[in-house]
Specification:
By secondary structure, the chain is of the alpha+beta class. It has two domains: about 1-45; about 50-130, no CATH class. The chain contains one helix and five strands; from the N terminus they run αβββββ. Strands 1, 2, 3, 4 and 5 form a five-stranded antiparallel sheet that branches. A hairpin with a 5-residue loop joins β3 and β4 (about 110-115). It is flat.
């Protein structure tokens, strides 16, 4: 009887481990798939020719300029608008990237004024390119 009492905690541990291991391996496989999806999203986001809609907002603030204590600021908003062939008149991918700026500049008497800056429009057509076949 004492031998069975010593094996009882061991059998409970084996039962618990046999129940946990399949769940843990499923969780690891699931996170690996999720990591692959996140890595693909990172790759798509950093690719300059991606068809992923994006918006970039940048703020350059200067607390003081030389010779004056006036604060200046420049806000740049840059969306990327993809036009895919099924939603466009053209048979290729088109990327449109306008740039809008809002600029705060100092006046000579110590005041500031805020106005829209120059607008830039970048329109890029991504032409289909045949992939090189490996020589066999």
């Amino acid at each position: 009887m004492k031998a069975l009492a010593k094996l009882f905690p061991l059998s409970i541990a084996v039962c618990v481990l046999s129940a946990i291991l399949p769940i843990a391996s499923f969780a690891q496989n699931q996170t690996a798939a999720e990591l692959a999806a996140e890595e693909k999203l990172v790759t798509d986001f950093t690719d300059p020719l991606t068809t992923l809609p994006q918006i970039s907002i940048r703020d350059a603030f200067t607390p003081a300029n030389f010779g004056t204590n006036v604060q200046t600021n420049q806000v740049i908003v840059r969306p990327i608008i993809p036009r895919l062939p099924q939603h466009s008149l053209f048979p290729f991918v088109q990327l449109i990237r306008p740039t809008f700026t809002l600029v705060t500049v100092p006046y000579p008497k110590g005041n500031t004024r805020t106005e829209f800056g120059d607008m830039q429009l970048f329109d890029l057509a991504v032409l289909p390119w045949r992939r090189a076949e490996p020589d066999s």
